[in-house]
Amino acid sequence: MQFAIKYLDDLKTALSGLDPAAIQQAISWMKEARDSGRMIFVCGNGGSAAIASQMVTDIVKGASYGRQNRFKMIGLTDSVGIITAYANDVDYECIFAEQLRNFAQKGDVLLAISGSGNSRNVLRAVEYANEIGCRTIALTSSAGGRLKDIARLTLGVPSRHMGRLEDSFFVMTHIIAYAFMEEVDQTQIS
């Protein structure tokens, strides 16, 4: 029982250190992208890839179904064929940036998830997105590695523990998604 108590206490500390203003800014950028027909992309590795895929599900189905304003969102983590083709034939570092080269345009949004903040494939995607004028959002630790410094907006978690980072990433992506899924009044998410 002591392990569970300690884990939950540490998770509460991590969650209490999240920045609501930064999360609200991410919500605003996603609302602007939705309302102007822009694309939203998301990427990450391992557990972060699973969080990215879950977020796409929440947004594309949960925040779009039955609504006039619908999201255009792609998980760069979701095509095993594309990822493995680039990883095998070119380099694993390019798996996300090369997909962005096919689809991304100025004004689109990229959410990049990395616990270490140093995943080369995530960094290359953010670098490319920045170059072409996309808005870039990082979900990472407060230490953030290089990702924290190159993203236009950082949603940092004050922890280096991968479990608590991923727990916090899920919470932040759910806050963002549910801002739209439970949207009653447009002014609530402005």
How is this structure best described in words?
The relative contact order is 0.19. This protein has one domain: Glucose-6-phosphate isomerase like protein, domain 1 (Rossmann fold), CATH 3.40.50. It has a five-stranded parallel β-sheet. Helices cover 53% and strands 14% of the residues. The model has no long low-confidence stretch (mean pLDDT 95). It is of the alpha/beta class. Strand 1, helix 3 and strand 2 form a beta-alpha-beta unit. The chain contains eight helices and five strands.
What topology emerges from the helices and strands here?
Elements: H1 2-16, H2 20-35, E1 39-43, H3 47-62, E2 72-75, H4 80-89, H5 97-103, E3 109-113, H6 120-132, E4 135-141, H7 147-150, E5 153-157, H8 162-181
Parallel strand pairs: 1-2, 1-3, 3-4, 4-5
What's the CATH C level?
Alpha Beta
Structural class, by secondary structure, is: alpha/beta
And the CATH topology?
Answer: Rossmann fold
How many E-type strands? Answer: 5
Number of helices: 8
Uncertain stretches of 5 or more adjacent residues: none
Round the Cα radius of gyration to an integer and report it: 16 Å
Helical content, roughly? 40-55%
Strand content: 5-15%
In CATH, the architecture is 3-Layer(aba) Sandwich
**CATH homologous superfamily?**
Glucose-6-phosphate isomerase like protein, domain 1
What characterizes the major β-sheet? 5 strands, parallel
